[in-house]
Every structure is written in C-alpha cells, then in structure tokens.
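Need a sequence for this fold. Nothing fancy.
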C-alpha cells in the first residue's frame, strides 16, 4: 500500500458533498415535519472514539442533530473494532435489530464503518446477509464520509467502499465535534508496522504514518484556548512517531508540555521495544505530563513473546519498569496481558504471573486469546483449550485485583489533584474523576462548599478516605 497525504484541495469535493447533503436532509426534515437525527455507536479503542468525533463533526455540518437517548435515529452509524471476537458478535447482533427499524422507516440509513470493514469476511457477510445496510467503508475513508454518503443516496443501493490506500488526512482539515469536556483526543499518528502475530490492527489501520509536529502543536494550542484541561496523544505505538521533518516522539511530548492552558498530557500506547529513557525523563521533569505509563507486556515468556513477534525480553521489560518506578515514584503502570496464546504452557503462564508480581502493575487490561482471522496466530498449532484458558485467566485476575487494591490503598490519607469527569454512575451526589496517575476517584462534596454549573472538566483537590478494589473514595477539599 502507498501512503497518500490528503490536502485542502482534496477536501473540496467533500465540502461540496456536505452542502448537497445539508440541502437534502433539510428537505427531508420539512417533508416529515421534524428534524432528522443521527446516532453513532462506537466500539473499541480511543482511536475509534477519535474517528467518531470526526464523524460527529461531519454530521453537524450536514445540519443533523444527535438522536435523544433511547430513540431510534434516522441515520444509524456503527463504528466497529476488529481486535476482539465479541465485537463482531455485537455488530451483527445489532444489525439484526435494526432490520425492524428499517421496515418501519424506509428512509432510515444504516452505515457500518471502522476496523472490522477491512476484514473481507465481515464485508462479505454484510453483503450477503444484511442487504439493508446502505453504506460500508473503512477507517482510511473517514475524511471521505460525506462523499460516500451522498453517492450511496444517489445510487439508492448498498455502497461498499474499501480503500487499498493508506491516507493521512490531518485533523486540521477535518471537522471534529469533541464528545468530552474533560479530555481531548489528539491522534499523532495512524497505523502500525509491528505485525504482532495475534493482532489484526496493521491490516485494518494500515502502515504507520505520522502527522506533522507543527500541526499537532497548533491543535493543542487551540484546545488550550478552548479550555480543555487534558489532552491524550494517540497512536498504536506513539514511541515510533516520526514526522516528515524528522521530529520524534520525545520532541513532540516536550513541545506539547509547553503549550499554554493544557494542564495534563496523556499518551497511549507505548511499545516496550521503542520506549526510551528520554521519554521517561521527560515524564519525570514536566509537571503537566501525567505520571501514568501504559506499557503492554502481553505475557511473561520469552518463548511466547518471540512467537507473538514482540521483539523484547522479559528482562528488558522489567528493566524499563525499574527505570520508570525510580524516575517517577508517584506514577502508575498499566499493561495488557493475553492469556492462552497458542502453545502457552503452565510454565509460560507462571512466568506471566511472576512478571505481574515483579512489576506490581497498578492496573491491567487482561484478555483471553481469541482467534483473529488473517493473523499468523490463527493458524498456529497447539491452541489452548478454553477451559484451561478460563482457569488461568481467573488466577491472573485474582492476582491483579489484589495489586490494584493495594495501589488504591496506598493513596488513602493523601490529597491530590483530580480532574472531574462528571457525576458517578452509582449516585447523583457522587462525582468521579482521575488523578495524574490515572487512579479512579469517586468523591463527595461536603456541605459548605458551593459551586455553580457543570463540574465536568474542572480541577479539584480531593482527600482520599478509603479504597475499593477498583476505585478510591474521597471528599472534595476545594476547587483549583
């Protein structure tokens, strides 16, 4: 595949399509006597969330409103993820549900996009079993969405458009409607060149391609002026970022920390083969760079790491952990772990438990291995029986839950800055937020402290009073 950089001139047909669609939907709204609505269901990682924010921006330009929660929209979009098998089950289950809605509203538009659409078997299944889906396209085509939607409406039949190119369309030329007040998602690069044998991402997101550093910094400056307190720099492997002028991730991270108005900078994800001492030193020396490092280890066996095409050893990984813990003693460390990779023995799994104990991860994202068609691991022999995987997975969870609770318990009695994310899902009088180390905090506001307006996105000092297995309770001391 070749990499094509999208320019402002390339977006002129998109702008023309937006104008045509706005007129079309305005006429449709007049005919039915109400505004037309849309909804977007997003599956997967923060990069998918970022893609959806661009789709929100394009819908806004078309003059459409998001459907109220619980109501069926006139345009339904499913932005999919191909990393886990259960994501596919959810997609096709939801498509079956929308069939009835399509019968009730013949003008209803159903769109499927995202990483799953780069897997031929999924596209073929939609063509065969879900002919009422109107438009199918992949992540590389996000910037062309208005053109594809217009063409689909003109043809009045299913349009499938899967790219053979890797586009890089800078965020500065694509409208974005951000869905959070407390955090702005900022992709700095797209795609992946690592080809881990269990992972479909390089085939769905394409080759690595980095945004211009100047463009990223300008976006951050605008976000700072708009009042965003936190930004998250995104990439499948941010440490391999390198712009056309040769700028590296440490240079971008340091420049990001110097942008006025940005109180917190996060980044995900890092690869153990690429993260440098320089990145850790920058984290340690800049107060507005969050003290949380996400560093996927995947397993604790050098033999399996080689089979996974993860070019590092456990010794090297633990060396990075030690370096980070010494440089950022107040920081937290999280990881990804796969249980049941083909050929995993009990000895291999015990190695994983040993790494978890030695690294003392504050949090972990744990997964049972699932076959991803198109990856090398899918055809490997010695697939581990599901009952064995489940038993090992429960042992891993038990160990990690203990470590997470100990990490939370260590915070009790301290007062730290918390970025408020909103009202807790458990009670209206409880608020949720996160520390610089990414610990989840649920806190109350005592009588005598008054406030006005929405607290989402505000910074506050919170005293931590007690720990739970997955969160920390606290009481607000004052706003910052």
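Here you go.
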């Amino acid at each position: 595949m070749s990499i094509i950089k999208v320019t402002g001139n390339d977006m002129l047909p998109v702008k023309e399509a937006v104008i045509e669609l706005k007129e079309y939907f305005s006429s449709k709204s007049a005919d039915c006597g109400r505004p037309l609505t849309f909804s977007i269901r997003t599956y997967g990682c923060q990069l998918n969330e970022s893609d959806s924010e661009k789709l929100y921006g394009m819908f806004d330009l078309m003059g459409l409103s998001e459907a109220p929660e619980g109501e069926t929209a006139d345009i339904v979009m499913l932005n999919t993820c191909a990393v886990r098998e259960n994501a596919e089950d959810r997609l096709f289950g939801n498509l079956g549900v929308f069939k009835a809605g399509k019968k009730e509203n013949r003008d209803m538009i159903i769109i499927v996009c995202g990483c799953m659409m780069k897997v031929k078997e999924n596209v073929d299944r939609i063509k065969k079993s879900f002919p009422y889906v109107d438009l199918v396209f992949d992540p590389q085509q996000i910037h062309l969405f208005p053109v594809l939607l217009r063409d689909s409406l003109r043809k009045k039949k299913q349009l499938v458009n899967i790219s053979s190119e890797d586009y890089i369309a800078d965020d500065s030329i694509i409208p974005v409607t951000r869905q959070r007040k407390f955090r702005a998602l900022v992709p700095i690069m797209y795609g992946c060149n690592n080809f881990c044998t269990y992972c479909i991402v390089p085939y769905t997101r394409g080759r690595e391609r980095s945004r211009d550093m100047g463009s990223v910094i300008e976006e951050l400056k605008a976000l700072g002026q708009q009042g965003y307190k936190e930004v998250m720099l995104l990439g499948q492997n941010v440490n391999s970022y390198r712009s056309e002028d040769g700028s590296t991730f440490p240079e971008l991270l340091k420049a990001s920390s110097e942008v006025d108005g940005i109180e917190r900078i996060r980044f995900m994800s890092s690869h153990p083969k690429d993260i440098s001492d320089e990145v850790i030193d920058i984290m340690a020396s800049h107060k507005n760079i969050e003290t949380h490092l996400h560093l996927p280890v995947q397993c604790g066996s050098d033999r399996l790491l080689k089979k996974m095409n993860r070019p590092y050893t456990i010794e090297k990984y633990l060396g990075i952990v030690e370096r980070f813990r010494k440089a950022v003693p107040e920081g937290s460390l999280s990881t990804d772990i796969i249980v049941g990779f083909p050929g995993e023995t009990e000895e291999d799994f015990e190695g994983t438990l040993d790494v978890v104990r030695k690294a003392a991860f504050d949090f972990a994202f744990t997964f049972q291995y699932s076959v991803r068609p198109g990856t090398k691991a899918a055809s490997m022999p010695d697939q581990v029986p599901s009952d064995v995987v489940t038993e090992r997975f429960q042992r891993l969870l038990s160990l990690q839950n203990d470590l997470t609770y100990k990490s939370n318990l260590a915070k009790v009695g301290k007062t730290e800055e918390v970025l408020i994310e909103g009202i807790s899902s458990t009670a209206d009088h409880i608020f949720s937020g996160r520390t610089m180390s990414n610990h989840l905090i649920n806190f109350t506001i005592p009588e005598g402290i008054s406030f006005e307006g929405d607290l989402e996105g505000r910074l506050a000092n919170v005293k931590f009073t007690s720990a739970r297995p997955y969160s920390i309770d606290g009481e607000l001391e004052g706003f910052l």
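For context: The radius of gyration is 23 Å.
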